[in-house]
Write a structure and sequence with these properties.
Strand order of the largest sheet: 15-12-14-13-19-20-16-21
CATH class of the largest domain: Alpha Beta
Radius of gyration: 22 Å
Oligomer: single chain
CATH topology of the largest domain: Vanillyl-alcohol Oxidase, Chain A, domain 3
Number of helices: 13
Number of domains: 2
Largest sheet: 8 strands, antiparallel
Strand content: 15-25%
Length: 507
Amino acid sequence: MNIPDDSGDSNENRWTNWAGNLTSVPDAIERPGSVADVQALVARSRGSTLRMIGTGHSFSPLVVNNAETLVDMSNFAKGQRKAWRWQDKGLNLVSFLPSASWAEVRDALTAPDPALPPMYLSSTGALASINATGFVAAGCHGTGWHQRTVSDFVHAIEFVAADGQLHVFSDDTTPNEMAAARVSLGTLGVITKLTLRVEPLFNLHDEEIVTATESVMGPNPQGTGGEIRPQNLHKLVTENEYVELFWFPGSGYNNGQIWIKKFNRTTEEPRDIPLRPDGWIDKMATAVMGWTATHPLLWPPILSMTWNTINDRAKAIEAKGGFVAPAPRVFFYADQAFPILDLEVALPIPATGPGTWDVGNVVRAWYAALNYAYKFQGDFPLTTCLHARFTRTSESLLSPAFSTAADDRVCWMEILSAYPKSEPDANKRAQAMASHLAMINAVMADWIGTRHARPHWAKNWQYITPHVDVKALYPQQNLAGFNSLRSRLDPGGMFVNHFLAQQGLFS
């Protein structure tokens, strides 16, 4: 387990991810400002390992690179534009540099321009502060029953490989290699530019509902002899374009309640857009969550207060019939990331016929988590929420959502718990993690072992014991196809750190 221990360590190169659960002490942190800088760095780094860092929003050791080199891309093209929208051959596109956040991509897509219409992505994650390039390279996603992952929107990708040369892959020039290039985990080279397919900017009708868990998931199979009734869930996800589900441990007993966020495209003009929480509220929540993680006696009132606040806000939105806003406002509904632990998987949802899918995996996985959380509620194994989103499958070879069945879907389900990032004692931080780790170890036996889910690369799957043989979860032809490209571009493994090498994925 990689738990940062800051005691007595003044190394100026120490790097810690935003959540605080990972640390790395490289020999150097390089900050290239241009393609030429990246090429020079690669040229002088023969025999070394390079891993690129963005905003540090991963929970797994994808970039941990002790005694090697981390490449911080935040200074790339400093003072210049980092993202811009454009059109080519009838396509709406956005290009961005590795220093760009999603907020900067959003602004580039929506800023007034007399020569171009406003545009936006068909789906995004919830946080505008995240580095956009790292998000794409790790195979991240938003929600959308008819949308693929964000990585699948990649039209072109430019990077400096181990030979020091600038390589460009695109739908136009290398269509057969895009499935390998889109989700690379940073192992093909240093990405210097990405171009994504986008569409004209659209409005979304955001409806928020709080309802009993059984009204969405059907009865708990623990009380029905194993029988499930997934009809309501099927209706919800198939009759709405975008759906997210949240269960919070303060939502009550008897399976609690679910907070539903559902969005649908509309031509209606924006209306009733709720105000964002004040910045001090987010800062206070961060401090309270982190401190309470090491003081479990405080969890009951905190969990109850958290749920009451969420419930009140959702009810206020519901009372107005939802609200209508441009897509970025609806997709980016969280202003700040909190210090949490997060384990997420992609659960398969197979198509069973025209317009029908088997969502039984989702129901059983959801209740497997709930039943564990209720059984060990005094230990508080889940202190933030259980969260689910839905997308189409992915064509990217290393995407957790990969499938050759074009009509299949996946449910991205995750367990989130508070992490005491500011606690200086590593032993206390490890103690605070213990109940969360016990939960994910128990629940993953169902989610991955029984339901054949794949862990999200960027979430904290490294804590699962016994260790997940992630290589066995992907078709061998996928790994062979990816390694065919990777071995050409990086035959010496310059971009593969110790953690990735341990997984046995890259030959």
